Amino acid sequence: AAMDLWDSLTELDENFASTFNQHVVTVVFASPVLMWHFELVFNFSDGISSSIRNLGIRPRIGNSLDLKFVKKMADAIEAGPKYAITLCSAVRSYIRSKEANN
Fold this sequence. Notes:
Blueprint: H1 2-15, E1 17-21, E2 24-31, E3 36-43, H2 48-53, E4 56-59, H3 68-76, H4 83-100
Helix pairs in contact: 1-4
């Protein structure tokens, strides 16, 4: 599981606007077209399960989106070491599809 988590976090770092501070990973999503701007915060200090249970979904300046859909997506993702990258990839795909239809 530790290697899967490492791979997942490496992929986040390489493919998303993310910051790593101690055991906290913040991933920022922005779509000027849709006026969406929010972040997902994963705190791994108490383990993977805790980071999933306590996922932070926070609006940022300029956000007009009701973030309930992100919580629904998060609840549908299988828990485990690849949770963060799986969720972030799903959110990015959702944003891209909405932008394409806008």
